Amino acid sequence: MPHSEYLHSLFGLNGKVAVVIGGTGELCGAMAEGLAGAGAEVVLVGRNAEKAQARLDKIAAAGGRAWFHAAEATSKAELESLRDAVLKRSGRIDIVVNGAGVNSATPFFDIAEAEFDRIVQVNLKGVFLGCQVFGKYLVERGQGGSIINLGSMSAVVPLSRVFTYSATKSAVHNLSLNLAREWAPQGVRVNVIVPGFFPAEQNRKVLTPDRIENIMRHTPANRFGEAHELIGATLLLASDAAGSFITGEELTVDGGYHAMTI
């Protein structure tokens, strides 16, 4: 088998349908482009049709297939409507990315209950509901599938100033491993991609000059990650061929941040 055909047999996603919740954002948008580039039909899910269109145009220009569906990640009813819409239009669902998220950098004693509840709703409840709605479909279908939840380095190593975000992401990691164990007999794989420091819309306000200096001191690669650098990890976890025996994995993409001690 020629080298290119071998790689395509491992990582190609022709005939697959991927639902990317949070796909209008920077990181999940890049992941969506990667999935489309590998042959999957991609459904971008978010609240901003204008942001989605820019990503859809990039995917189309590269020869990929994608469409947008507006949905609120914290609403079970809207996620169920999303599931039904995808099945009606695309006929199947094989890959689900739960990537909606919000952040804050509020001092601990100043965190208002409303802020805490908002972050828990999006970061934890959104992933919980996404797994519940789409996991039920995949388990009952009986043909396997891949769920990729977006975790965080702050769930592995607690980071200062992002208390609620860190707590919710830790819960996402725990939930993902629990579900990986539950659904492995049905061939449904659940994994976590753990980005290190990638400048994105939700964390730009947190990246103050002193914080950037500390991050660089702790990152052997001595730079921030770029969104496209999450694509390889995404394709590995999405592929039933390349990732067939990978479940319950927390796949870190961080330029060596977690390996640095002193």
Question: What does the model show?
Answer:
Belongs to the short-chain dehydrogenases/reductases (SDR) family. InterPro entries: NAD(P)-bd_dom_sf, Sc_DH/Rdtase_CS, SDR_fam. Pfam families: adh_short_C2. This is Gluconate 5-dehydrogenase. This protein is of the alpha/beta class. The protein has one domain (3-248): Rossmann fold (3-Layer(aba) Sandwich). It is 46% helix and 15% strand. The longest helix has 29 residues, at 113-141.
Helices and strands: which structural class?
Answer: alpha/beta
Count of domain modules: 1
Biggest sheet: strand arrangement:
3-2-1-4-5-6-7
What is the straight-line distance between the termini?
47 Å
In total, the number of strands is 7
Calculate the mean pLDDT score and round it.
Answer: 94
Order of helices and strands: HEHEHEHEHEHHEHHE
The profile of the biggest β sheet is:
7 strands, parallel
Task: Count up the helices.
Answer: 9
Shape: globular
Rounded radius of gyration (Å): 18 Å
CATH architectural label:
3-Layer(aba) Sandwich
Uncertain runs are none
CATH superfamily: NAD(P)-binding Rossmann-like Domain
CATH topology assignment: Rossmann fold
Helical content stands at 40-55%
Reading off the top of the CATH hierarchy, the class is best stated as: Alpha Beta
Q: Into which percentage range does the β-strand content fall?
A: 5-15%
